[in-house]
Amino acid sequence: MRIPLPELLRVRLRDRLRPSGGDSPGWSPTPALRRALVVTLALLVAAVLTGRADLVVLATPFAVGTSAALLRRPRGLPVVGVSAAEGADPAVAGDLVEGADLHVLVDVRARGAAFDVALVQREQPPWLRDRTRARTHAGAVPADAGTRFTLTGQLARWGRYVVPPVRVRAAACDGLLTCAPVTSDSLAVRVFPRTEPFAADEAMPNAAGLVGVHRSRRFGEGGELAGIRQFAPGDRLRRIDWRASLRTGELHVAQTLSDRDAELVLVLDVLHEAGRSEGIDGAPSVLDTTVRAAAGIAQHYLGRGDRVRLLEYGGRNRALRVGSGRRHFVAALEWLLAIRAGEGPHDPSAGIFARQILPQQALLVVLTPLLDHRSVALLARLARSGRTVLAVDTLPDSARPDRENPWTPVAFGLWRLERRNTVAQLLEHGVPTVTWAGAGSLDQALRDVSRRAAAPR
C-alpha cells in the first residue's frame, strides 16, 4: 500500500520532532509547515520535469524560510507555574478575604528558543466571579525567559477552594510548530469570611480576668469612679480628692473599679442550613450569617484583649481552645473555614456542659437560627445553669420553604408566629434574643444582661 506524499511527510515530521525518551507529547507540525513543504516539493519536481529554472527560484524562499524557522526549534515544552498573589486585606495579611479579588499568576517559561505565542485557557469555577470574561489569554514568550499572565476574579464566598488547572498551548518557529496542551498544577486557596462591621459599646457583664478594658465589680486601679472614702495607708497621693478633704477636714481618696478582661464563648448552632447563599453581594444563608457574625464578634473582643472560645453545636462538635490576641483570631478564622452544617454521629450536647469548657463567669453568645427544638433546649439549659447567655438570631429574612403549595404562606406565617412565641419564652427565662445586624447588634442585650448580673440575688 502506498502512502500519499503529504501524509508521508507529515508522519516523518511528527516522528522527527517528537523528543526522544518518555511518552510525553512534543512539538507537532502545523498545517502551515505542511503547506510550505508541499509547495516547495511541488515547485522543485515541476522544475525538474520542465527544466525551468524560475520554478527553482520560486521554491527557494519557501525552502530557506522554513529551514531558518526550524533552526529556532524549542528544546522542550513550556514550563508552567501557577501561584496566587497575596491579599491586601489589613486584617488578615497574606490571605484572601471574600469579596476581594483573586489574582492568579500564570508563569509560562520557554526553554531554548522563543514562543511566537502562548495561549492560556482556564476554567471558571462557580465561587470565582470573572471580571474580564475572557477564557483565553495570549502573549509572546521570549527565549530562555518567561511571561506572566494574570487571571483576575472576585471571590464570591468564604471557604477552602481549589483553582482548576490551566492549559497552555504554544506555537514556535514562525507558527510552523505547535505543542500539545500543557496542564498546570491546581492551586489551593483559603478564603476567609469577611468580618461584619461590629462594635459593642457596652462592657461585659462578668469581667473577672487579670487585666483588660472592661469595668469589673472589684475595687482597684481603673478609670471608672466607684466612690469616695477616707484615706488609708497605702493609698496613692494622686488619688486624693481635695474637694472632699477640704470640706470634711480629713483626707479622702477617690475609689475606682478595676479594669479586667473577660471570657467570651461563641456557640455556633450548625444543626441545620437554611436559605440560599448568593455570595458576598447577595442574600446570605444561615451558615453565612453565622460564620461572618462569629468572625466579627471574635475580631472585636480579641482586639480588646479578651479571651474567646468557639464551640460547634452540631456538625462535628468541634471546639477551639480559649485564647487571645491576633494569632488566636487567625486560628479562629481557620477553624471557621472547616465548619459544616448537619448532624454528626454524636449527641451535640455531649461534653458541651463540662466545667472546663464553659466557665461560670464567661459570657455565652449562641448564634442560632432557632430551627430545632434542641437549640431552644440548649439555651434554656444554659440559662438554668446560672450562666450569662445571649442568643443571636442568624435566620435571614430571605429564608423560605423549598417547596411551595397554596397553603405555604399560611403555614409559614403560623411558623413565624410560633417562633416569636419561642423568643418571648426565652426572654422570660433570662435569654434575650437579638437579630444580627452588624455594629451595635448586641449593645441593648449586653446592657440588659449586665444590669441583670449586677442585680442582687
UniProtKB/TrEMBL annotation:
Domain of life (superkingdom): Bacteria
Instruction: Pinpoint the DUF58 domain residues.
Output: 228-393
The record ties this protein, via Pfam families, to:
DUF58
PANTHER family reported in the protein's UniProt record? BLL2464 PROTEIN (PTHR33608), POSSIBLE CONSERVED SECRETED PROTEIN (PTHR33608:SF14)
Full protein name: Uncharacterized conserved protein, DUF58 family, contains vWF domain
